[in-house]
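[job 4417] fold queue: 2 targets
>>> target A
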Amino acid sequence: PTARSAMRQLIPVVVDPVDPYGVYADVPAGTDRPGVRLNMIASLDGATSVDGLSGALGGPADHRVFSVLRSVTDMVLVAAGTMRAEGYGPAELPADTQDARRRAGQTPVPAIAVLSRTCSLDWKSRFFTAATVRPVVVTVADAPEAHRARAAEVADVVIAGERDVDLHGALVALGERGARSVLAEGGPGLNAQLAGAGLLDELCLTLSPSVVGGDSKRIVSGPSLDPTCPWHLASLCEDDGFLLLRYRAPAAAARRNVSASHVTVPT
């Protein structure tokens, strides 16, 4: 078998090898809500998936960072469409990582919050039945009452908005449940809504050494955003041809008014 490659940090200073936990341990902080870190992968030509799935773009380097990001966050946030497409199960972490989280006052694994405007999910899936930490379903008051009642049997239910999800309100509610940091995992539509509402504090982007073509969406798929507000490159690492970039949002964007954050999320 080939030897395991080692991650090396190139920016802000060269560290070779570097411990990925050290790179990603400084989770972004929010103000009146948890800090939000987005994790995505894209090919060299900007595709976020192959045949509808992101897994084909990844590799051991990306998987290590995925695990590290989950290990340091309090809660994961994902849209219902991505949860279904990627076949989400409950979060899993090594036993020693779970012990470290307990010592830090966190749950052994992060809870996963799924956004669904219709509150119509497969309640018998492993995502719910095998979870060691109770999942969260974020939905709206207009979702059918029977669906919300069924969700409450297997998950904590957060009502954030009447017809459309109020993302800022949802994040505040997750903060009230103990989340100081939230790891958003997509998809591109949710990413665009978070970015447009000024609710992204950090973007972790894995650049896969592949060209795939096709018509896959970009990591953010939605209305145009202001390109004159550059993000700050916090770190750049390389591992087996994969580039692992970490950008912090402009300070002005992190502080701006997010009151108009009512959006429509995938059902």
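>>> target B
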Amino acid sequence: MNDFVQSLGYLSFSDGWGLNLLKGLASTLQIALGAFALGLLIGLGGALGKLHGGTPLRWLLEIYTTLIRAVPELVLILLLYYAGTQLINEVLESAGFQPVDISGLVAGIAVLGIVQGAYATEVIRGAMRAVPRGQLEAAAAFGMRPVQVLRRITIPAMVPFALPGLSNLWLIVLKDTALLAVVGFSELALTTRQAAGSTRAYFLFFLVAAGLYLCLTLISNVFFRHLEKRSRRGQPELV
């Protein structure tokens, strides 16, 4: 017990790992927020393509969502991170441009965003199908253009149906950021492993990391419950 209390000094912000852990936490949030936003954009476009696109587009989107959901996230991260970076540089070189050094933050957001997009596509597509068809027909009868119907009717009406699934996707991407440690990106998981390896205080640092992830999850749950409650204003309570 005394050894554990003494090891708390490793969390000091002056000469310990406390500040590094907070920086790792900030990097985790940056990647998670960026990847979640990118996944939402891909998911919205994918859902619209599956519902209203032509046959070739629907087939391409079906292949995308099936492959991404079938392959483990760790394999996808390694494949997209290394092969994707190499492919981009080869295309640039063939076009006469200099290869670029893609930052870990951008690569992490892009990789996790592509993975998120496949799941978000199905969540948003299901939410759009849950919108009563009569509302869409009434909007069209009033002369609204398809873009106006999407912005004024479809998206506001689908949000209550999509939020439970999207909240799960947010928690998934929050935890998936830890997988970026395998490609050397310094987020919370990698910082924790470095701190534990340097001090041999494995129990302390992994306990702190678990606590930080738990805090993020609890805060996220409160936030999404608030959003869901606001989105269902004026609707009957679900039993």
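[job 4417] complete. Note on B: Residues 18-52 form the longest helix (35 residues).
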